């Protein structure tokens, strides 16, 4: 009996140890799985079954322990009953263990899946970084192509842009659109016309339509005196960048061309066309059943600075027919200047001559234009609905035909502030008597018929002394404006020519029918049309308003030298590190230390010298400048990214000095 009791006691102790072990393990299991809100219901059920078995076992042990020794003896309770209960716990535990293994396998699979997803995300991020680096590298390579930022048809240049009004140029635009979309038409379309016939207006209208139809490859609007816009070396680089936006798949071959062709950005236009456009386009396979048509618009080709570059352009155009997958069309406008005429004779092209379009069609279009503009005047000034009257309207149309610039100038002159529209209208009508009109013949005579009356009206009521002052200011201020190689604001122009700012602005305010004067005094003042410049420098046309080009350029050379002497100095940009890269210098910092007039003077003083009166050159003034500021000038040219231009400028200066038998010795 005693032995039986001892055996049971040992069994109880072992049972307590067993219970402690089970409870400890599964309290940890429970705590771990409670952290996961998504714990499987089967695990929860199995845990409960284990706890039920444990509690049953504990209750039985306690019950046995509480019995009297006599009862224990008589019942002969052995460890068998405890063993059975322990076995039930083992079974519940085994059941739970199986579920835990299943869940663990799921969790491992989920963790593996999560790791794969995380790896995928990391790889995606790495790919994005690589793509960004490749894109940055591509931009850096393409940045080597120097472009004319303001040559695009809708560039924000501050100029007054016009497009064809509805119901005007209808047949002309219809023909151009037919040419652009018909794969069987010739690759080149030439729209020629004399000054003021509206070529640029048509070009801009065509470019916008092509853009809307997804056919525009690029556009380049040449402009004399427009810095980069008169440089043919910017033509194909600019068009290449625009075409890349339309055909990004050309990026790789274009980048290869830039890397493999040294100095492609400044090479001759013919080589630029071959390497940047022709070869990449010829190798392009876009997988279309019919060729992709892209049209390039080139406006005012005659305003290209170097005639030889015009010839180079025409040598490239015949190659367009060799392109198969992409049909590159070129729409060109220009005056019928000899280099352009010669170039078009060498190629096959479609052609329309603006000033030879039927007079009735031109009359209709100019009439529509003037009616629309006179409606504006009536609205602005509260004039009668029938103003200015049908007969007057017809007379004004007759004056303008075939020049749209004539009609536009009439409108701007009549609508100028400071005088009643009727008074200005009468001034125009009285200056165009029937006898006078019979004497007007030819392009410049027709322009004289509008520009001369405008200028004469401005001075008509001035006393002799006031008139002399006005004419002096006109030659100085307007003369400088028409001879500048890049437009300046009224404020910067006043500083360049050492004139009073208020005086410059007042003089410009009287000329708004021929000069674009922005409200922002820091925006550039520009001629509304190149023909006004040509009128002023033609002595036979402009008479008393004549601008002497030679004397004007000589004076501007002196103005530039004086400006540079005033403003140039060592370390003008106040750079903390003299060895800093140019692209690391903030643009706003340069703008604050290098004024617009100083920029102009540094870039163009030698060009004015070339175009001036050689006998009037003050070489002592130039030599003194070089001794004091040669390195300062080079520093500014470098900071502004024009250092490559200094080579040609210095070569030109040396040639001029040699002709004048002068030996220049810039300070080391």
TrEMBL record:
This is Nephrocystin 3-like N-terminal domain-containing protein. It comes from Penicillium cosmopolitanum. Signal peptide: none annotated. InterPro entries: NPHP3-like_N (IPR056884), P-loop_NTPase (IPR027417). It comes from the Eukaryota. Residues 174-335 form the Nephrocystin 3-like N-terminal domain. SUPFAM superfamilies: P-loop containing nucleoside triphosphate hydrolases. Keywords: Repeat.
